Amino acid sequence: FVWIDIFAVLQWPVPEQAVDLDFRSVVQACGALILVAVHVPEIAALTIEEAQAQGNVPDAAKQLCAFFRVWCLVEIAAALEAKLPVVMLVGGSRIGGGNPASLPP
After folding, report:
1. CB of 38 within 8 A of CB of 64?
2. How far apart are CA 43 and CA 20, in angstroms?
3. pTM above the 0.70 mark?
4. Which pLDDT tens digit goes with each residue over 43-72?
5. Closest CA to 19 of 30, 29, 10, 32
6. Pair 43, 37: CB distance under 8 Å
7. For an engineered disulfide with 37, which of 11, 66, 92, 95 has Cβ 3.0 to 4.6 Å away?
8. How far apart are CA 47 and CA 19, in angstroms?
9. What is the per-residue DSSP string for the chain?
10. How far is CA 82 from CA 5, 8, 68, 97, in A?
11. What is the spatial distance between Cα 93 and Cα 73, in angstroms, rounded to a whole number?
12. Alpha carbons 44 and 100: distance in angstroms, whole number
C-alpha cells in the first residue's frame, strides 16, 4: 500500500489530529519510505555549521524544508530503525532537479 502523509494526516493542530500522529507504526508497516522534497536555495547555500547554528535558517525556508519538520524526521528514523529502504528525492521542476551546479548559466 501507499501512505502519503500529507493526505493521510490532518495537517491542522486540532484535538482530532492526535489519532493521526502515530507515524512510527505506519511507516514500519510499509516496504520502503520515499521522501520527495523541494530544493530550498537558502538552505542549500548554508554550510553544515551555519545550518546547525541557532537562527541562521530563515523561517520561510524552514517551512519549505522537509528536514526541519519533526514528523518527517520521525518518519525517516522509523524507516531506518525498521531497516527499510529510504529513498530521498530533493529537487525542482527545472532541468537539473534543483542542483545549482547542473543548471544552465
Report:
1. yes
2. 29
3. no
4. 888 888 888 887 788 888 888 888 888 888
5. 10
6. no
7. 66
8. 37
9. ----HHHHS--S-SGGGGGG--HHHHHHTSS-EEEEEE--HHHHTS-HHHHHSTT-S-HHHHHH-GGG-HHHHHHHHHHHHTT--EEEEEE-SSTTTT-GGGS--
10. 18, 21, 22, 29
11. 24
12. 9
Q: Would you say 5 and 17 are in contact if contact means Cβ atoms under 8 Å apart?
A: no
Nearby residues of 8 by Cβ (< 8 Å), 6 or more positions away:
20, 26
CB contact set of 105 (below 8 Å; sequence gap of 6+): none
Cell 520561510 found at: 60
> 27, exposed or middle or buried, with CB in 10 Å at 0-12, 13-18, 19+?
buried
